[in-house]
Amino acid sequence: MEMKLEARDVAPRLATGVFILNSGLSKLRADQEMAAGVHGMACIAYPFLKKLDAQRFTRLLALSEIAVGGTLLAPFVPTRLAGAALTGFSAGLVGLYLRVPGMREPGSLRPTQSGIPLAKDFWMLGMGIGFLSAHSPRGGESANRCPWHRCGRH
């Protein structure tokens, strides 16, 4: 089964992949202070992460970001698989946005000034979910993404 990369998926995969890959590469060079900050914020949202050393956590996060970014950038990786990686990764980041105090306005999903950098994770989650619906083989053809056109009447 051949899975070709559709032209419509190139731009979002490229933009998101480069962004995540850059973030991971930056974290690989994290000093103790940066690692403590990244780890501290993650521990607020996910307390079980306190068991990990800050440097180790930041390195694992960096490697995860590099893997997800690389998956999105690799043209031979099917878009649905890249979407699964992006969805899982960004869902964890959305959880961070929702759980860390001060990221949202009280009683709202609207970000505060501090929360704006994390609010972008909703876009990544949306793209990942969209990629999951890509290229569903039916009778050798890719499914049309538009639900109104799936019935075959265009």
Automatic annotation (TrEMBL):
Keywords: Membrane, Transmembrane, Transmembrane helix. The keyword Transmembrane helix applies. The chain crosses the membrane at residues 57-76, 82-100. It comes from the Bacteria. This is DoxX family protein.
